[in-house]
Amino acid sequence: MTRYIIRRLLQFIPVILISTLIVYALVFAIPGDPIRALAGDRPMSDAVRETLREQYNLDDPFLVQYFKYIWGIITALDFGSTFNGRPVTDIIEQRLPVTATLALVTFVIQTIMGIIAGILAALYRDRFFDRFVQVSTVAMVALPTLVIGFLLQLIFGLNLGWFPIAGVNNGLSSYILPALTMAAVSTGILARLVRSELLDSLKSDYVRTATAKGMKRTRVITRHGLRNSLIPAVTFIGADLASMMAGSIIVETIFNLPGLGQQVFASIQGQEGTVVVGIVTLFVLFFVVINLIVDLLYGLLDPRIRYE
Amino acid sequence: MSLSAPAAADPFAEKKSVLEVDGLVKHFPITQGIVFQRKVGAVKAVDGVSFNLREGETLGIVGESGCGKSTLAKLLMRLEEPDAGTVKFRGEDFLSVKGDELRRLRRKIQIIFQDPYTSLNPRMSVGDIIAEPFKLHPEEKPKQGIRNRVKELLDLVGLNPEHINRYPHQFSGGQRQRIGIARGLALNPDVIICDEPVSALDVSVQAQVMNLLDDLQKEFGLSYIFIAHDLSVVRHISDRVGVMYLGKLAELGTQDEIYTAPAHPYTQALLSAVPLPDPTMRGAREQIVLQGDPPNPANPPSGCRFRTRCWKATEICATQEPELISRGQITQLAACHHAEQNEKVVPAHD
Amino acid sequence: ACGGGDNGGAGNGEAAEGVEGGGTVSAYNCEPQFLVPANSTEVCGSWVLGSLFTGLTQTDFDTYEPTAGVAESWDTEDNVTWTFTLGEDWTFHDGEEITAQTFVDTYNWAVDPDNAQQSANFFDNFLGYQEVVDGDAEEMEGVRAVDDYTLEIELTEPFSPLPDMLTYTAFYPMPSVAYDDIEAFEQAPVGNGRYMMDGEWEHDQQISVNRYEDWAGENPGLPERIEWMIYADVDTAYLDVQAGNLDILDAAPPNRRTTVEADFGDNAQDFDTSAFTYLGFPLYQEEFQDADVRHALSMAIDRQLIIDNIFDGAQTPAENIIPPDLIAGNENTCEFCQYDPEAAAELYEEAGGPDELTVYFNSGAGHEDWVEAVANQWRDNLGIEDITFESLEFAQYLGLHDEQEITGPYRLGWTLSYPSAQYAMEPIYSTGASSNYADYSSEEFDDLISQANAETDPDTAAELYTDAEAILLEDMPVIPMWFTNYQVVHSDRIDGESLFMDQATFTRLEQVVVTEE
Amino acid sequence: MSEIHRPEARVEPIDSTLEPAGEPAKTKKVEEASLLADAWRSLRRNPWFIISGVLLVLFLSMAIFPQLFTSTDPRECLLGRSRQAPSAEHWFGTDIQGCDYYSRVIHGARNSIAVGFIVAIGTFIIAVVLGLVAGYFGSWVDAVISRFTDMVFAVPYILGALVFLNVLESRGVREVAFVLIIFMWPTMTRLMRGSVISVVNSEFVLAARALGAGPITIMRRHILPNSLGPVIGYATVFTGIIIGAEATLTFLGVGLQLPAISWGLQLSDAQPFLQTVPHLLLFPVIFVGLTVFAFMTMGDAIRDALDPKSKK
Amino acid sequence: MTESQTSTRFTPGTRPGDAPLLEVKDLQVEFRTKAGVAKAINGLNFTLHAGETLAILGESGSGKSVTAQTIMGILDMPPGRIAGGEIRYRGDDLLTMEEDSRRKLRGVKIAMIFQDALSSLNPVLPVGWQIAEMFRVHRGLKRKEARAKAVEMMQRVGIPGAEERAGDFPHQFSGGMRQRIMIAMAIALDPDVLIADEPTTALDVTVQAQVMRLLKDLQTEFNMGLILITHDLGVVADVADKIAVMYSGRVMEAADVYETYGRPGHPYTQGLLASIPRIDDEGGRLRAISGLPPSLTDMPPGCPFNPRCEFATDRCTTERPELRLVAEGHLSACHYAEDVYAGTATRTRRPSPTGAGMIAISQEAPE
Ligand SMILES: Nc1ncnc2c1ncn2[C@@H]1O[C@H](COP(=O)(O)OP(=O)(O)OP(=O)(O)O)[C@@H](O)[C@H]1O
Ligand SMILES: Nc1ncnc2c1ncn2[C@@H]1O[C@H](COP(=O)(O)OP(=O)(O)OP(=O)(O)O)[C@@H](O)[C@H]1O
Ligand SMILES: [Mg+2]
Ligand SMILES: [Mg+2]
């Protein structure tokens, strides 16, 4: 078991190396000269361009660039810098808390809401609440994130004034609307997953036993049924946490949260390989940790699952 | 029936062994802690079991609940990997074969699971469940067509062939058990390991099933390992009987030896506790009531494992582990320093 | 407006000030790329730098003529050698005095290739620029401090718009601390402008400046404090202005046009700007070399219809190339910019224009709709059935241009960095110019521009520029589409009368009057 | 060593001894049943299945034969009638370019449904195969697959899309679908793996192994049907998510290229006009919603049908 | 004993003055299946008094577990459906009771041991927790106390190393141990009525004896009524007070335990008793009742046992025999019950030599 964890931790190394390589390659593969784009309509002089290209190793072949980058990290913990000279570590330091908070709030919202909604939908199967969950999931999926975000801003930010419309200046409440936006689709999916898994497990004998023990229906469901149905939910939540970055790109933009998503998107567009890779490395680390946790949770949720 | 009849000569002495089991061991780790689990010990589920099973023979296995019978069965099927020991099927090392070879051998050894419900795929109809062996081993495809054969099998085990399209959850416990039996029989294997195959059946159906097993054996020279708690059933069907206690064989002998003259105190206690289907005998029989709690398989007593509950235990039992051997007069093998045949404990009707 | 607004934060003692001026203004901004003057090429940074710095000259926004900045006056005989007399009271925010040497140092630093300043090539007509770039010289010969307060600039050729050009961000002076650690400097630039940094640049969040009370210029800034709130999305900023969390959004998103009235009523102002959008032709492709083809394509576009329906009127149809508000700007209409589908069809037919077109534009910048509308009009009016689109990321898009791989009309835009007709034309249309993506070349035009640049009399120069423009409108290397009309929306705290956006699309925050605290 | 095979006799005789004698076994015709056949039978009687089926058929025919639903040319656009509200002439009003929106939405079905379908099916297949293999074999196979999944996860799909779609010559349905598949399979794969892991230790799997079933058979017959539930549930919603992702790509400038017509493009175009011209958003949203609804309901019905216990 | 033949109520062993603890009247349960409605229970009647042990014997699939589930109110509905009848606990009809009050009885007053111990235990919760839950929820004990109680219960049912193993999960226990855990859970709160559905099938005889002793003790201590569903006729003989024999969803015979074993009043019971393998019997063929039970979806008219009955006549195929008193405290549902009871019934058919069906005995071959 402990060995299992150690082995998993060791697996991080190739994963991170390879995925940074992939990402680096992808950024490298974007056609067009990033330095050229920096200046906009009015081109900069060749001399300046040369200097900049050299400064960012852009004239080196791809692998050389990559190794220079990795070498910088290994020897000097230098994660590179943006084209406007900000060290990537600075950017991460500044933006990570924002994205982390956003992810955390989203996670809390969607987990709690999703699971509760799923439980209620299963409890009241085919009744109003169940249909409501179904229909709102459809609506959430059909409405583009941008629209959901905008509607939330309009309703809760502008008209009701409950939450700030944008920015991060109001502490946690700044994150409520963006988190809701980001959680919208996942909450629906989660609720449906929980619902159907619960319904499945409600058919099982041990749930019958719990009933026969005289437990209240809610207890039967939450204590006996739920645990057995959580594996897909936990997987989904884990995967969703991992893919939150894609979501954060848009949400951070609409809600003007200076987080990593925003940055990564800007850097992708600006072809700032080092920044993208730096941030993505962070995300890879995050994913592998999350996935490790998820796998460990499997064992917790279902003791029949053994780790070799 | 004469209780004192000398143990009959072993009728299978000439027969070849189909299954040779030597020193099988399986320990399950006991862990503590939630994320960083530590191993704090091991349940010694099977702890050095050896026997051989011969062609056409039925070996009954009885023993205390939790003494490792099902684990033994799973080990024999290679559904659990043993920690030590060997299993030979017709002289071939069964534990080292892989892939197709393993699959080929598995066709010859079948198991009927103790738990009739969890061992049936809830999403397969009974027809599919019983037909599965034929699908897996196309060379065994019955002449009359798989479906007809499945119906026959259902009928054989006393299930209504019309229920071929039902799903396991639609059956009663005994009916499910018979589905498992039908599946085990389908391929006409050489060895069937029956883990409590008839425990959930009413006596009439049980009689049918046992007759069936009997017939099959006569017809094809099948061998059975028959694990059960109902000692009458075991006696009825077995040629030899092994008594297990805490992961080890306590006694092994012919059915006659064991039932008429048990030598191991545990066997004696077991036999004395058999309830007889006769209310008038209530309380009339003398039972050997074992003192104390069954020991913890994670931490079995030193020496003889039974000594903590044994009325005969002496010093030596605590220090020296008795081997499974035949001692002096006693023809069967008994793992007891004080093995002594005792005929009085054997229950008798009237 | 009391809901959750936490503007200012610092002690609010301004109420006592009474008269005009004072108060805090919060304004929308995007995240600047750079805050080093010679390195800043985009709006977000330039806007901030404009408050932090004052160059040798400034623009008079009434006339778009250059007025005194650090230089009190200037003089030239031949448009080649210019003498600037500096004011003597100018200091940087950290107290460092500004002398002619300050400018010499700054300019030399800016062109030094090691410093890789993106705007370095604005100096390319300074004498000695090329040598510095080539590494043959340390300093530009053409920039000289005659004495503490006399600066001499010598150019390689006559260039009348120099005082206009010097208003541009790239020519702001920098204090000596900048050279020690330019990165640290960038986080909190020390300038000589109306406003000084309050704290550091909070990336992606805000930049705050306070009024610099020792500013030596004529008309100091009115608001006591300006806070640029950095937004990633304009729509969000729009809502924040609506909610009273933000005072000024300089460019309401175009799709809001129809609701601005309802959302803001009087709190919205329209401004014409020099932001020019055009559809260029790759003249290196054969099928576009016939001017008639270009004329026909231009005449087949109903600009007003597109502006009305796609932009809700947020553009002014371009019938010229020089923004009309400039000195040289005029209303003279462009013959081939008039919508005339029949004539266009005929002309196109005659000229044998291509029957399939690929239209290029950069993606993700909101050009899809109007480009599609143009294409629809071409299809309807000219019968070009097969029109496809190629949209690319900007970097790639420019790459295609550099490689001359564009095969059809392309969208580009041009905003004037300094208000001069020269700048509206020369970089784009003169032979071999840096932004001449159309590969246009006309000797006549080049001559006229040179003449105008050499002309010392502003009025004559303006005429010459107008003549040059006429050639462009006739040759039509690009189809002028429109000048963007910006709509500035603001909160109730701002006096709408005082709002003004200049040609370069900068809202002049220093003139804003805060009415309510 | 020689096989000890018993004589042929073994096939038959059991019945001869134990044949149900007396009354001839009732030869009631019992239909052949398997999980799938049963599932199909119960599906046919499930009204929700019918409803969703009809909807899907409707959308599919819309995708294949848009002419059946509208005779208006979706490309006939008159800027002069831009953004008109729904009217008798233009049921769904007109869009920014002044095209008939009804006809646009109908014609949008093809690309959107194609992308949604291809991606959903593609990811589903990848997920099921990889999830099964990883969950079943565990140990290093799982490690390799799972780590590989992590890596793909780590690459923001937007980055991938930007790169691939920019490099590719054209950006049609195939290209967009391809990129989405490449970057979107990990979630579903993990879901599948998770549910495989939770059934792989079941006793009936042991039973199948004891019968001599190989990994493929076990996976296919025993694990797959018992672990598909969550994935089906997710995949059906996923179709909608894909249509949304297509819109996002468009928003980022790398989606389907003009002059293609798709719901994603429409959603993306309509966003700025949410307040002023809501019908531009409303209609594609309704269509996407109905598609998602149909898929979801169908998924539920299939899931139910695949569970013998839930048969009513 | 009161004469209540009018209703087919079965009341042997009634102690005058005792109100019955549990009364099942004319219970009917059906399942919907593809092939039609399967009538699993067709008019079932029995009564249980405090302190009494009622053994329900019967054909596998005759509806014993369904009956138990129906009493507990945990039948899956659908596909199950209660088509009629009453189940009275101390006079209150459970079937019409509010769900909430019924729930309060479950586990506390009426408890059940399930037949299928592995699937009936929650695989993801430690067994100790599952037992402790009873104390925590119904007795309001604290976590610690409840756990201690749970361990105590595990010890009582003879699980070795209970203290350490309380935290283990069901799959880590052997079949018999799981069964004992189920038992521990069911008797945790000393219920009034305990329904034990094959509680000892997976137990060896020593443990079985121990468990049965435990149940007996509880019974005397708390005057518990025990419904023992089992196939083990040995156990029944040892512990039951009265016996109901079920076949095809109805009670065929009901009597005192001595009566049933000594003088069965129904051919099915006779057949059953004859099938028992004897411990002192070495081998040979066992006598089984030939044939299959009728399909529940299309029940033959008349006596459900008639196709398999040695004594069946034409009457048996047309007329359904009701449960009636044949002797003091002895009920049977056979037209010829008296004859069977007295051992004078005439055999009309005998089992086919294949052991499957029945063959009519020809006129000239009198038995
Ligand atoms: N997966 C496992 N993990 C830990 N312990 C286990 C596991 N499987 C079985 N055991 C332990 O091994 C011992 C033997 O179990 P096994 O199932 O073989 O008993 P058994 O003889 O079949 O008993 P029964 O007659 O009750 O079925 C028991 O103590 C059991 O708790
Ligand atoms: N869900 C169901 N659908 C259809 N038939 C069912 C269902 N559940 C049970 N049955 C049928 O009801 C009958 C009674 O089942 P029950 O489980 O009560 O039998 P039992 O008497 O407990 O048998 P056993 O001794 O084998 O456990 C059986 O014939 C069974 O096939
Ligand atoms: Mg077992
Ligand atoms: Mg049962």
Automatic annotation (TrEMBL), chain A:
Organism from which the protein derives: Nesterenkonia jeotgali
Protein name: ABC transporter permease
Chief localisation class: membrane
ABC transmembrane type-1 domain ranges (all copies): 96-298
A Gene Ontology term for the protein's cellular component: plasma membrane
Subcellular location(s) of the protein: Cell membrane
Membrane topology: Multi-pass membrane protein
Keyword entries, A-Z: Cell membrane, Membrane, Transmembrane, Transmembrane helix, Transport
GO biological process: transmembrane transport
PANTHER family (UniProt xref): DIPEPTIDE TRANSPORT SYSTEM PERMEASE PROTEIN DPPB-RELATED, DIPEPTIDE-TRANSPORT INTEGRAL MEMBRANE PROTEIN ABC TRANSPORTER DPPB-RELATED
Protein family (similarity comment): Belongs to the binding-protein-dependent transport system permease family.
Transmembrane segments: 12-30, 102-123, 135-155, 175-194, 229-255, 275-301
UniProtKB/TrEMBL annotation, chain B:
Keyword Nucleotide-binding among record annotations: yes
Family membership noted in the UniProt record: Belongs to the ABC transporter superfamily.
Transmembrane segments: none
Keyword terms, alphabetized: ATP-binding, Nucleotide-binding, Transport
Top-level taxon of origin: Bacteria
Organism of provenance: Nesterenkonia jeotgali
Gene Ontology molecular functions: ATP binding; ATP hydrolysis activity
Name the UniProt record assigns to this protein: Peptide ABC transporter ATP-binding protein
Residue span, ABC transporter domain: 19-271
GO BP field: peptide transport; transmembrane transport
InterPro entries given in the database record: AAA+_ATPase (IPR003593), ABC_transp_ATP-bind (IPR050319), ABC_transporter-like_ATP-bd (IPR003439), ABC_transporter-like_CS (IPR017871), Oligopep_ABC_C (IPR013563), P-loop_NTPase (IPR027417)
Pfam families documented for this protein: ABC_tran, oligo_HPY
TrEMBL record, chain D:
GO biological process: transmembrane transport
Region (Disordered): 1-26
Biased composition range(s): Basic and acidic residues: 1-13
Membrane protein topology class: Multi-pass membrane protein
Domain ABC transmembrane type-1: 113-299
GO cellular component: plasma membrane
Keyword terms of this UniProt record: Cell membrane, Membrane, Transmembrane, Transmembrane helix, Transport
InterPro entries registered for this protein in UniProt: BP-dependent_transpt_permease (IPR050366), MetI-like (IPR000515), MetI-like_sf (IPR035906), OppC_N (IPR025966)
Location in the cell: Cell membrane
TM regions (residue ranges): 48-69, 113-139, 151-168, 199-219, 231-260, 280-302
Gene3D superfamilies cross-referenced by the UniProt entry: MetI-like
SUPFAM superfamilies, sorted: MetI-like
Superkingdom of source: Bacteria
Major localization class: membrane
Protein family per UniProt: Belongs to the binding-protein-dependent transport system permease family.
PANTHER family, alphabetized: ABC TRANSPORTER PERMEASE PROTEIN, OLIGOPEPTIDE TRANSPORT SYSTEM PERMEASE PROTEIN APPC
Name used for this protein in its record: Peptide ABC transporter permease
From TrEMBL, chain E:
Keyword RNA-binding (UniProt): no
Domain ABC transporter: 22-273
Domain of life per record: Bacteria
Major localisation: membrane
InterPro entries assigned: AAA+_ATPase, ABC_Ni/Peptide_Import, ABC_transporter-like_ATP-bd, ABC_transporter-like_CS, Oligopep_ABC_C, P-loop_NTPase
Region feature (Disordered): 346-367
Gene Ontology terms, MF aspect: ATP binding; ATP hydrolysis activity
Pfam families for the chain: ABC_tran, oligo_HPY
Family indicated by similarity: Belongs to the ABC transporter superfamily.
PANTHER family, per the entry: DIPEPTIDE TRANSPORT ATP-BINDING PROTEIN DPPD, OLIGOPEPTIDE TRANSPORT ATP-BINDING PROTEIN APPD
UniProt name for this protein: Methionine ABC transporter ATP-binding protein
Organism of origin: Nesterenkonia jeotgali
